[in-house]
Amino acid sequence: MLRLQNLGCRIWAEDDKLRIRTSKNALTAELKQEIQDRKADILTFLKAAKTQAVSTAEIPALSADSPKLLSFAQQRLWLLAQLQGSSATYNMPGVREKIKTVPDTAATVEGFC
């Protein structure tokens, strides 16, 4: 499976059929034969992976008053700010000019709350 992924192949199961999408000539005759020989194992693996996939329903929602945890990147930036003091080092001044659309202010504020 990893070898197929490294070749840029997309592989999935539809009912009891194995489907593969890849660029032309990416699959050698030997690899095609290996896929045919292991088709049952691959289908079993894909079906098991599909049933074990995490659904968003399993992620509990935080209450509005619960503390929000920072990501590791946010923690790192906070620590640097504590050590170095206020700095514009990590600001991205050119980003605003590159944005082509007007941002939705309400959605932006909601995303940071």
Structure explained in plain terms:
By secondary structure, the protein is mainly α. It has a domain at 2-51. The chain contains 6 helices and 2 strands; from the N terminus they run H-E-E-H-H-H-H-H. A two-stranded antiparallel ribbon has the order 1-2. A hairpin with a 2-residue loop joins strand 1 and strand 2 (17-21). The mean pLDDT is 81.
Summarize the structure.
This protein is mainly α. Helix content is 46%, strand content 9%.
Radius of gyration: 24 Å
Strand content: 5-15%
Estimated structural class? mainly alpha
Mean pLDDT: 81
Number of helices: 6
Shape: elongated
Record the strand order, biggest sheet.
1-2
| Major β-sheet annotation | 2 strands, antiparallel
How far apart are the first and last residues' alpha carbons, in Å?
A: 41 Å
What is the number of beta strands?
Answer: 2
Order of helices and strands: HEEHHHHH
Unreliable spans:
none
Q: How helix-rich are the residues, as a percent range?
A: 40-55%
